[in-house]
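Morning F.,

Quick status update on the modeling queue. The single chain you submitted on Monday has been processed. Sequence for confirmation:
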Amino acid sequence: MKKTFPSKVDVWLVLLVALPLALALPGLVEDFSWAGLVVILFCYALIAVCMIPCNYMIDGNDLRIRCGFRSEHIDIGSISRIAKSSDLSSAPALSMRRLRIDYNKGIYTLVSPKAQAEFVELLCSINPNIECLK
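Structure tokens below.
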């Protein structure tokens, strides 16, 4: 059974990333430059490639995490703990409402599925040894 969970997206986080480039637009309109437009569009495209798509797929005993060109596979049997986190570390997550997934005795990743409760419930149904903390 495959189930895909899209990442929750924080609007303020998107604005934080997009706003600096948007602030350059009035100057570009006032003194138009094709080079300036190309640079701004290239930067937006680069940001999009790094963040889209961002989702988490549970396929059998495999958790596949994809965010842009970053891809990660975790054996669900190796997950020991899932806990809510507000860790600001770089992660394949488009929201600050994150879950920390500990696996392989000391490795962890941060995710932000839109349907967190359903995501955790499905993982725990596959591996009942997962410790779920709040």
